Amino acid sequence: MHLTHELELFPGHKVTQMLFKEVKNAAELRQCAVEGKINGALINPTMLVNPFQVLVAANKAVNSQNNGKMKTRSLYSEIIFNLSPTNNISEAFKRFGCSDGDDSVLVVLIHNEDESQLLADLTARVSGRQVPVEEVSSLTDHAKVKKLYKVTQEEEKSGTLLDAVVCRMAAKDVM
Amino acid sequence: MAQEKSMAAIPEFLSKAELLKQGAEARVYRARFLGRPTIVKERFRKQYRHPLLDEKLTHRRTVQEVRSVLRCRRAGISVPVVYFVDYTSHSIFLEEIVGSSTVRDHIVSSPPSARCEGLEPLAERVGQVLARMHDEDVIHGDLTTSNMLLRCGPEDEVSELFLIDFGLSYISALPEDKGVDLYVLEKAFLSTHPHTEALFQRLLKSYAAASKKSSAVIKKLEEVRLRGRKRSMVG
Fold first, then answer.
1. What does the mean pLDDT of chain A come to?
2. Could you tell me if residue A118 is left (phi over 0), alpha (psi between -120 and 50 degrees) or otherwise beta?
3. Where does the secretion signal sit in this chain (chain A) (predicted)?
4. Yes or no, beta carbons of B70 and A167 under 8 Å apart
5. pTM given for the model
6. How far is A93 from chain B (nearest CA, A)?
7. Are B175 and B213 in contact (CB under 8 A)?
8. To 10 degrees, the CA torsion angle through A50, A3, A119, A166?
9. Does B210 touch chain A (CB under 8 A)?
10. Contact B110, B118 (CB under 8 A)
Protein backbone atom coordinates (compact mmCIF):
# COMPACT_ATOMS: atom_id res chain seq x y z
CA MET A 1 0.00 0.00 0.00
CA HIS A 2 2.93 2.29 0.64
CA LEU A 3 5.06 3.55 -2.21
CA THR A 4 8.85 3.47 -2.05
CA HIS A 5 11.12 5.03 -4.61
CA GLU A 6 14.91 5.14 -4.48
CA LEU A 7 16.17 8.54 -5.65
CA GLU A 8 18.22 8.06 -8.82
CA LEU A 9 20.44 11.04 -8.02
CA PHE A 10 21.16 9.89 -4.49
CA PRO A 11 21.61 6.13 -4.42
CA GLY A 12 20.74 4.75 -1.00
CA HIS A 13 18.15 7.45 -0.32
CA LYS A 14 14.66 6.02 -0.46
CA VAL A 15 11.43 7.95 -0.27
CA THR A 16 8.43 6.17 1.16
CA GLN A 17 4.90 7.57 1.06
CA MET A 18 1.93 6.33 3.05
CA LEU A 19 -1.63 7.57 2.89
CA PHE A 20 -4.13 7.37 5.76
CA LYS A 21 -7.82 8.13 5.73
CA GLU A 22 -10.29 8.54 8.60
CA VAL A 23 -7.48 9.78 10.81
CA LYS A 24 -8.64 10.60 14.33
CA ASN A 25 -5.43 11.79 15.96
CA ALA A 26 -4.10 14.39 13.50
CA ALA A 27 -3.41 16.89 16.31
CA GLU A 28 -1.41 14.33 18.28
CA LEU A 29 0.57 13.28 15.18
CA ARG A 30 1.38 16.86 14.34
CA GLN A 31 2.60 17.42 17.90
CA CYS A 32 4.85 14.33 17.61
CA ALA A 33 6.30 15.62 14.35
CA VAL A 34 6.98 19.04 15.85
CA GLU A 35 8.76 17.41 18.80
CA GLY A 36 10.76 15.22 16.45
CA LYS A 37 9.24 11.94 17.64
CA ILE A 38 8.06 11.20 14.14
CA ASN A 39 10.85 11.17 11.63
CA GLY A 40 8.79 12.15 8.64
CA ALA A 41 6.78 14.87 6.95
CA LEU A 42 3.03 15.03 7.49
CA ILE A 43 1.28 16.44 4.46
CA ASN A 44 -2.27 17.55 3.81
CA PRO A 45 -3.27 15.28 0.90
CA THR A 46 -5.97 17.60 -0.43
CA MET A 47 -3.18 19.83 -1.77
CA LEU A 48 -1.53 16.97 -3.66
CA VAL A 49 -2.36 15.97 -7.21
CA ASN A 50 -0.16 12.90 -7.49
CA PRO A 51 2.58 11.05 -5.51
CA PHE A 52 5.05 12.25 -8.16
CA GLN A 53 4.67 15.77 -6.75
CA VAL A 54 6.02 14.51 -3.40
CA LEU A 55 8.96 12.80 -5.10
CA VAL A 56 9.91 16.06 -6.81
CA ALA A 57 9.80 17.88 -3.45
CA ALA A 58 11.76 15.13 -1.67
CA ASN A 59 14.45 14.96 -4.35
CA LYS A 60 14.92 18.70 -4.19
CA ALA A 61 15.09 18.60 -0.40
CA VAL A 62 17.85 15.96 -0.37
CA ASN A 63 19.75 17.94 -2.99
CA SER A 64 19.50 21.16 -0.96
CA GLN A 65 20.63 19.30 2.15
CA ASN A 66 23.69 17.91 0.35
CA ASN A 67 24.60 21.32 -1.02
CA GLY A 68 24.03 22.99 2.35
CA LYS A 69 21.34 25.17 0.78
CA MET A 70 18.28 24.26 2.81
CA LYS A 71 15.87 27.11 3.48
CA THR A 72 14.29 25.47 6.50
CA ARG A 73 15.63 23.64 9.54
CA SER A 74 15.09 20.00 8.69
CA LEU A 75 14.86 17.71 5.72
CA TYR A 76 11.18 17.09 6.41
CA SER A 77 10.20 20.72 6.74
CA GLU A 78 12.14 21.31 3.52
CA ILE A 79 9.87 18.81 1.70
CA ILE A 80 6.78 20.72 2.81
CA PHE A 81 8.43 24.02 1.84
CA ASN A 82 9.33 22.66 -1.61
CA LEU A 83 5.71 21.76 -2.33
CA SER A 84 4.65 25.37 -2.04
CA PRO A 85 4.82 27.73 -5.03
CA THR A 86 5.95 30.63 -2.83
CA ASN A 87 9.02 31.26 -0.68
CA ASN A 88 6.99 31.93 2.43
CA ILE A 89 7.78 29.20 4.95
CA SER A 90 4.88 29.69 7.35
CA GLU A 91 2.41 29.81 4.49
CA ALA A 92 3.87 26.57 3.11
CA PHE A 93 3.24 24.89 6.46
CA LYS A 94 -0.27 26.25 6.69
CA ARG A 95 -1.23 25.04 3.21
CA PHE A 96 0.71 21.84 2.80
CA GLY A 97 1.39 20.66 6.32
CA CYS A 98 -1.05 18.58 8.29
CA SER A 99 -3.52 20.57 10.45
CA ASP A 100 -5.07 19.50 13.74
CA GLY A 101 -8.54 18.80 12.41
CA ASP A 102 -7.54 16.86 9.26
CA ASP A 103 -9.07 13.45 8.69
CA SER A 104 -6.52 12.33 6.12
CA VAL A 105 -2.74 12.55 6.09
CA LEU A 106 0.10 11.59 3.77
CA VAL A 107 3.34 10.64 5.50
CA VAL A 108 6.70 10.94 3.75
CA LEU A 109 9.83 9.23 5.07
CA ILE A 110 13.37 9.38 3.76
CA HIS A 111 15.54 6.46 4.79
CA ASN A 112 18.39 4.30 3.59
CA GLU A 113 17.78 0.95 5.19
CA ASP A 114 14.89 -1.42 4.80
CA GLU A 115 11.63 0.35 5.52
CA SER A 116 9.56 -2.37 7.21
CA GLN A 117 10.46 -1.42 10.80
CA LEU A 118 9.96 2.30 10.14
CA LEU A 119 6.61 1.63 8.56
CA ALA A 120 5.44 -0.54 11.41
CA ASP A 121 6.43 2.13 13.95
CA LEU A 122 4.55 4.78 12.07
CA THR A 123 1.46 2.77 11.37
CA ALA A 124 1.22 2.05 15.08
CA ARG A 125 1.06 5.77 15.85
CA VAL A 126 -1.68 6.64 13.39
CA SER A 127 -5.22 5.80 14.31
CA GLY A 128 -6.70 5.68 10.86
CA ARG A 129 -7.12 3.45 7.83
CA GLN A 130 -4.18 3.03 5.47
CA VAL A 131 -5.09 3.17 1.77
CA PRO A 132 -2.98 2.89 -1.40
CA VAL A 133 -0.95 6.07 -1.98
CA GLU A 134 -2.36 6.41 -5.50
CA GLU A 135 -5.72 7.25 -3.94
CA VAL A 136 -4.32 10.67 -3.12
CA SER A 137 -5.65 11.79 -6.51
CA SER A 138 -9.21 11.21 -5.33
CA LEU A 139 -8.67 13.50 -2.34
CA THR A 140 -7.31 16.44 -4.34
CA ASP A 141 -9.11 19.75 -3.91
CA HIS A 142 -8.69 20.84 -7.53
CA ALA A 143 -10.12 24.33 -7.09
CA LYS A 144 -7.77 25.08 -4.19
CA VAL A 145 -4.72 23.68 -5.99
CA LYS A 146 -5.43 25.71 -9.13
CA LYS A 147 -5.90 28.87 -7.13
CA LEU A 148 -2.78 28.46 -5.01
CA TYR A 149 -0.48 27.59 -7.93
CA LYS A 150 -2.22 30.15 -10.16
CA VAL A 151 -2.86 27.69 -12.98
CA THR A 152 -4.49 29.38 -15.96
CA GLN A 153 -7.20 27.89 -18.14
CA GLU A 154 -4.99 28.04 -21.22
CA GLU A 155 -2.32 26.06 -19.44
CA GLU A 156 -4.73 23.30 -18.60
CA LYS A 157 -5.60 22.91 -22.24
CA SER A 158 -2.03 22.07 -23.18
CA GLY A 159 -0.99 19.97 -20.19
CA THR A 160 -2.16 18.27 -17.03
CA LEU A 161 -2.59 19.93 -13.66
CA LEU A 162 0.30 17.81 -12.36
CA ASP A 163 2.59 19.21 -15.09
CA ALA A 164 1.64 22.75 -14.13
CA VAL A 165 2.22 22.13 -10.43
CA VAL A 166 5.56 20.36 -10.88
CA CYS A 167 6.86 23.13 -13.15
CA ARG A 168 6.08 25.78 -10.57
CA MET A 169 7.69 23.80 -7.78
CA ALA A 170 10.86 23.25 -9.81
CA ALA A 171 11.09 26.86 -10.94
CA LYS A 172 10.04 28.66 -7.79
CA ASP A 173 13.49 29.85 -6.73
CA VAL A 174 13.93 31.86 -9.92
CA MET A 175 10.51 33.41 -10.20
CA MET B 1 34.81 14.45 2.72
CA ALA B 2 31.13 13.62 2.96
CA GLN B 3 30.33 17.04 1.57
CA GLU B 4 32.65 16.53 -1.38
CA LYS B 5 31.17 13.18 -2.16
CA SER B 6 27.58 14.40 -2.08
CA MET B 7 28.37 17.46 -4.19
CA ALA B 8 29.24 15.10 -7.03
CA ALA B 9 25.81 13.41 -7.02
CA ILE B 10 24.71 14.88 -10.33
CA PRO B 11 27.99 14.46 -12.29
CA GLU B 12 28.09 10.91 -10.96
CA PHE B 13 24.51 10.33 -12.14
CA LEU B 14 25.20 11.84 -15.57
CA SER B 15 28.34 9.76 -16.06
CA LYS B 16 26.07 6.72 -16.25
CA ALA B 17 23.38 8.38 -18.38
CA GLU B 18 23.11 8.13 -22.15
CA LEU B 19 24.75 11.11 -23.85
CA LEU B 20 22.52 12.29 -26.69
CA LYS B 21 24.26 15.38 -27.88
CA GLN B 22 27.10 17.68 -27.09
CA GLY B 23 26.95 21.27 -28.21
CA ALA B 24 29.08 24.33 -27.55
CA GLU B 25 26.94 25.32 -24.60
CA ALA B 26 25.74 22.12 -22.99
CA ARG B 27 25.56 18.35 -23.02
CA VAL B 28 22.19 16.66 -23.35
CA TYR B 29 21.57 13.29 -21.68
CA ARG B 30 18.73 10.82 -21.52
CA ALA B 31 18.03 9.11 -18.20
CA ARG B 32 15.31 7.93 -15.87
CA PHE B 33 14.56 10.37 -13.09
CA LEU B 34 11.96 9.84 -10.35
CA GLY B 35 10.78 6.94 -12.46
CA ARG B 36 10.16 9.00 -15.59
CA PRO B 37 11.96 9.29 -18.93
CA THR B 38 13.91 12.50 -18.62
CA ILE B 39 16.24 14.72 -20.64
CA VAL B 40 19.03 16.40 -18.70
CA LYS B 41 20.71 19.50 -20.06
CA GLU B 42 24.01 20.18 -18.34
CA ARG B 43 25.83 23.44 -19.00
CA PHE B 44 29.45 22.49 -18.51
CA ARG B 45 32.34 24.67 -17.46
CA LYS B 46 34.06 26.63 -20.24
CA GLN B 47 37.81 26.49 -19.64
CA TYR B 48 38.43 29.45 -21.91
CA ARG B 49 36.42 31.87 -19.78
CA HIS B 50 37.38 33.45 -16.50
CA PRO B 51 35.80 31.25 -13.80
CA LEU B 52 33.80 34.09 -12.28
CA LEU B 53 32.40 35.24 -15.61
CA ASP B 54 31.72 31.66 -16.62
CA GLU B 55 29.78 30.99 -13.44
CA LYS B 56 27.73 34.14 -13.87
CA LEU B 57 26.86 33.60 -17.53
CA THR B 58 26.05 29.93 -17.07
CA HIS B 59 23.87 30.65 -14.07
CA ARG B 60 21.99 33.39 -15.87
CA ARG B 61 21.31 31.23 -18.92
CA THR B 62 20.06 28.36 -16.81
CA VAL B 63 17.69 30.69 -14.98
CA GLN B 64 16.54 32.32 -18.19
CA GLU B 65 15.77 28.97 -19.78
CA VAL B 66 13.63 27.90 -16.83
CA ARG B 67 11.79 31.22 -16.77
CA SER B 68 10.95 31.14 -20.46
CA VAL B 69 9.70 27.57 -20.25
CA LEU B 70 7.36 28.49 -17.43
CA ARG B 71 6.17 31.61 -19.20
CA CYS B 72 5.34 29.59 -22.31
CA ARG B 73 3.51 26.96 -20.29
CA ARG B 74 1.39 29.62 -18.63
CA ALA B 75 0.34 30.82 -22.08
CA GLY B 76 -0.69 27.30 -23.08
CA ILE B 77 2.24 26.63 -25.41
CA SER B 78 3.41 23.01 -25.30
CA VAL B 79 6.92 22.88 -23.84
CA PRO B 80 8.58 20.10 -21.84
CA VAL B 81 7.83 20.12 -18.10
CA VAL B 82 10.74 21.14 -15.85
CA TYR B 83 11.17 18.47 -13.19
CA PHE B 84 14.20 19.74 -11.33
CA VAL B 85 16.92 22.38 -11.61
CA ASP B 86 20.31 22.21 -9.92
CA TYR B 87 22.15 25.50 -9.80
CA THR B 88 25.40 23.94 -8.59
CA SER B 89 25.99 21.75 -11.63
CA HIS B 90 23.80 23.98 -13.85
CA SER B 91 21.61 21.10 -14.92
CA ILE B 92 17.98 21.20 -15.96
CA PHE B 93 15.89 18.03 -15.79
CA LEU B 94 13.11 18.10 -18.37
CA GLU B 95 10.29 15.84 -19.43
CA GLU B 96 11.23 13.67 -22.41
CA ILE B 97 8.67 14.03 -25.18
CA VAL B 98 8.40 10.32 -25.83
CA GLY B 99 7.51 9.23 -29.34
CA SER B 100 8.22 12.58 -30.94
CA SER B 101 10.27 13.56 -33.96
CA THR B 102 11.63 16.94 -34.99
CA VAL B 103 9.74 19.08 -37.48
CA ARG B 104 12.95 18.98 -39.50
CA ASP B 105 12.82 15.19 -39.87
CA HIS B 106 9.13 15.38 -40.60
CA ILE B 107 9.66 17.79 -43.50
CA VAL B 108 12.71 15.94 -44.83
CA SER B 109 10.92 12.59 -44.82
CA SER B 110 7.84 13.83 -46.69
CA PRO B 111 7.93 13.30 -50.46
CA PRO B 112 9.20 16.40 -52.31
CA SER B 113 6.13 16.58 -54.51
CA ALA B 114 3.85 16.89 -51.50
CA ARG B 115 6.32 19.01 -49.59
CA CYS B 116 4.46 22.24 -50.02
CA GLU B 117 0.80 21.33 -50.06
CA GLY B 118 0.84 18.42 -47.63
CA LEU B 119 2.81 20.34 -45.08
CA GLU B 120 0.69 23.46 -45.11
CA PRO B 121 -1.32 22.59 -41.97
CA LEU B 122 1.97 22.07 -40.12
CA ALA B 123 3.36 25.42 -41.30
CA GLU B 124 0.19 27.08 -40.12
CA ARG B 125 0.45 25.43 -36.70
CA VAL B 126 4.03 26.63 -36.34
CA GLY B 127 2.96 30.15 -37.26
CA GLN B 128 0.21 30.14 -34.66
CA VAL B 129 2.41 28.80 -31.87
CA LEU B 130 5.14 31.35 -32.58
CA ALA B 131 2.52 34.12 -32.63
CA ARG B 132 1.33 33.07 -29.19
CA MET B 133 4.90 32.92 -27.90
CA HIS B 134 5.73 36.39 -29.22
CA ASP B 135 2.50 37.78 -27.81
CA GLU B 136 3.84 36.65 -24.42
CA ASP B 137 7.05 38.58 -25.22
CA VAL B 138 9.18 35.43 -25.20
CA ILE B 139 11.94 35.59 -27.81
CA HIS B 140 13.21 32.08 -28.48
CA GLY B 141 16.58 33.12 -29.86
CA ASP B 142 17.32 29.92 -31.74
CA LEU B 143 14.30 29.03 -33.83
CA THR B 144 15.03 26.14 -36.19
CA THR B 145 12.95 23.21 -37.34
CA SER B 146 15.17 21.00 -35.16
CA ASN B 147 13.98 22.87 -32.07
CA MET B 148 10.36 21.96 -32.73
CA LEU B 149 8.99 18.52 -31.91
CA LEU B 150 5.90 16.77 -33.19
CA ARG B 151 4.19 14.12 -31.11
CA CYS B 152 1.39 12.15 -32.65
CA GLY B 153 -1.63 12.07 -30.40
CA PRO B 154 -3.57 8.94 -29.48
CA GLU B 155 -5.50 7.45 -32.41
CA ASP B 156 -3.57 9.55 -34.87
CA GLU B 157 -5.26 12.76 -33.88
CA VAL B 158 -3.70 16.09 -34.74
CA SER B 159 -0.13 15.90 -33.55
CA GLU B 160 1.03 18.21 -30.80
CA LEU B 161 3.74 20.78 -31.54
CA PHE B 162 6.38 21.36 -28.83
CA LEU B 163 8.98 24.09 -28.69
CA ILE B 164 12.28 23.09 -27.11
CA ASP B 165 15.69 24.55 -26.21
CA PHE B 166 15.06 27.94 -24.66
CA GLY B 167 18.75 28.26 -23.87
CA LEU B 168 19.14 31.51 -25.82
CA SER B 169 15.72 32.91 -25.03
CA TYR B 170 14.87 36.17 -23.35
CA ILE B 171 11.92 38.42 -22.65
CA SER B 172 11.33 41.42 -24.90
CA ALA B 173 8.36 43.30 -26.28
CA LEU B 174 10.32 44.97 -29.09
CA PRO B 175 9.12 44.25 -32.65
CA GLU B 176 12.81 44.37 -33.61
CA ASP B 177 13.63 41.33 -31.45
CA LYS B 178 10.59 39.39 -32.69
CA GLY B 179 11.46 40.29 -36.28
CA VAL B 180 15.01 38.98 -35.82
CA ASP B 181 13.61 35.82 -34.20
CA LEU B 182 11.53 35.17 -37.34
CA TYR B 183 14.44 36.11 -39.58
CA VAL B 184 16.66 33.52 -37.91
CA LEU B 185 13.94 30.93 -38.50
CA GLU B 186 13.54 31.96 -42.13
CA LYS B 187 17.27 31.56 -42.76
CA ALA B 188 17.39 28.20 -41.02
CA PHE B 189 14.18 26.98 -42.60
CA LEU B 190 15.08 27.81 -46.19
CA SER B 191 18.62 26.48 -45.91
CA THR B 192 17.63 23.14 -44.31
CA HIS B 193 14.60 22.74 -46.59
CA PRO B 194 15.36 24.12 -50.07
CA HIS B 195 12.49 25.17 -52.35
CA THR B 196 10.02 25.69 -49.54
CA GLU B 197 9.59 29.45 -49.94
CA ALA B 198 5.83 29.05 -50.43
CA LEU B 199 5.60 26.94 -47.29
CA PHE B 200 7.42 29.53 -45.23
CA GLN B 201 5.13 32.23 -46.60
CA ARG B 202 2.22 30.16 -45.32
CA LEU B 203 3.86 30.08 -41.89
CA LEU B 204 4.27 33.86 -41.86
CA LYS B 205 0.73 34.40 -43.02
CA SER B 206 -0.71 32.35 -40.19
CA TYR B 207 1.66 34.11 -37.75
CA ALA B 208 0.36 37.46 -38.97
CA ALA B 209 -3.23 36.35 -38.63
CA ALA B 210 -2.78 34.90 -35.14
CA SER B 211 -0.61 37.53 -33.47
CA LYS B 212 -2.13 40.68 -32.08
CA LYS B 213 0.95 42.78 -32.72
CA SER B 214 2.07 41.19 -35.96
CA SER B 215 2.02 44.16 -38.35
CA ALA B 216 4.96 45.90 -36.64
CA VAL B 217 6.86 42.60 -36.43
CA ILE B 218 6.40 41.74 -40.12
CA LYS B 219 7.48 45.26 -41.06
CA LYS B 220 10.61 44.82 -38.96
CA LEU B 221 11.24 41.44 -40.55
CA GLU B 222 11.31 43.08 -43.97
CA GLU B 223 13.79 45.64 -42.66
CA VAL B 224 15.97 42.91 -41.12
CA ARG B 225 15.99 40.97 -44.39
CA LEU B 226 17.62 43.92 -46.09
CA ARG B 227 20.31 44.50 -43.51
CA GLY B 228 20.83 41.11 -41.84
CA ARG B 229 20.44 40.07 -38.24
CA LYS B 230 22.74 42.68 -36.74
CA ARG B 231 21.76 46.32 -36.64
CA SER B 232 24.12 48.55 -38.55
CA MET B 233 26.45 50.29 -36.17
CA VAL B 234 27.97 52.78 -38.56
CA GLY B 235 29.09 56.06 -37.00
1. 93
2. alpha
3. none
4. yes
5. 0.92
6. 22
7. yes
8. -30
9. no
10. yes
